[in-house]
From TrEMBL:
Protein name: Uncharacterized protein
Species of the source: Tetrabaena socialis
Highest taxon of source: Eukaryota
């Protein structure tokens, strides 16, 4: 929508940096491909947008592209820090320790109490004991470790019971940015010391919560790690034993501006990938 640089050869550097790369602008960024990201990243045309392909980007920023799990969206390139007002704050390393990456964090309950907010408003009872990348498949008899159970709203299905889910340390990620699906992660609250290990085997879908996944991730500005109540309680130290427990009542720490663009109620998490998710 502002293509005056198209067809031009540019020398590009980070503001305040010394290294530069030379690039050929022969492609466009279209909002149709990324739910409005070009408009957001340019501050609605307040700034010229230069979207570097991974080759020149890696030359400029010094990151390695050789990993078989490489995803350009995981690169912690420096955000503008207010120097491009109106533009998406971008992929800053977010204050995480060296070797850790920033994420926005939330929590969910895979077996919510009936009639709680999690059950009714977030489809928690419908999906109780069921996970995008772990099943169980809906067949008769139910697959190993699963049973035909009521999720809490009268809906019978093959489900993994609470005791199985508890030992798996499950987490979910945004289905529209699912590069973490199937990965085992170590996760901490930014600035904290406690670490939990989770298996990302489920997704957060906006269809279940009126756009909450998009909002909590800042429309994919940050990886979303949605912790199941088991690992969430280990990380944050809350008690899940009350008969009236609802994960939505847990006062987990908001990001306090550390994850700009994300819902203010989302946590500032840091994570590192430690392998393939395993369930046993």
């Amino acid at each position: 929508m502002d293509d005056s640089l198209l067809g031009r050869r540019l020398e590009v550097m980070l503001q305040g940096g010394q290294q530069f790369v030379t690039v050929n602008v022969k492609d466009v960024c279209s909002d149709l491909d990324c739910d409005g990201c070009c408009k957001a990243n340019s501050g609605n045309k307040a700034w010229k947008l230069i979207d570097l392909e991974k080759g020149p980007a890696s030359q400029l920023l010094g990151f390695d592209t050789s990993s078989p799990r490489f995803d350009i969206n995981d690169v912690p390139y420096p955000g503008h820090g207010g120097k491009r007002q109106g533009a998406n704050p971008g992929g800053t390393a977010g204050g995480c320790l060296a070797g850790w990456l920033p994420a926005a964090g939330t929590a969910f309950d895979s077996w919510p109490r009936p009639n709680t907010v999690e059950c009714k408003d977030y489809a928690g009872c419908f999906w109780a004991g069921r996970f995008k990348a772990a099943g169980p498949d809906q067949r008769s008899p139910c697959p190993s470790l699963s049973l035909r159970l009521d999720g809490g709203n009268g809906s019978m299905a093959c489900r993994y019971p609470p005791e199985v889910v508890k030992r798996w340390n499950m987490a979910a990620t945004y289905n529209m940015d699912a590069s973490l699906l199937g990965r085992k992660l170590e996760v901490m609250v930014q600035g904290g010391q406690r670490v939990v290990t989770v298996n990302v085997k489920d997704i957060c879908s906006d269809l279940d919560c009126d756009g909450c996944c998009k909002a909590n991730s800042g429309n994919k500005a940050w990886k979303l790690i949605d912790l199941e109540k088991g690992p969430a309680s280990q990380l944050l130290g809350f008690d899940t034993s009350s008969p009236r427990f609802d994960i939505n009542d847990v006062p987990y720490p908001g990001h306090g501006g550390k994850r700009q663009g994300a819902n203010p109620g989302a946590m500032a998490l840091c994570y590192r990938d430690v392998g393939v998710a395993t369930l046993s």
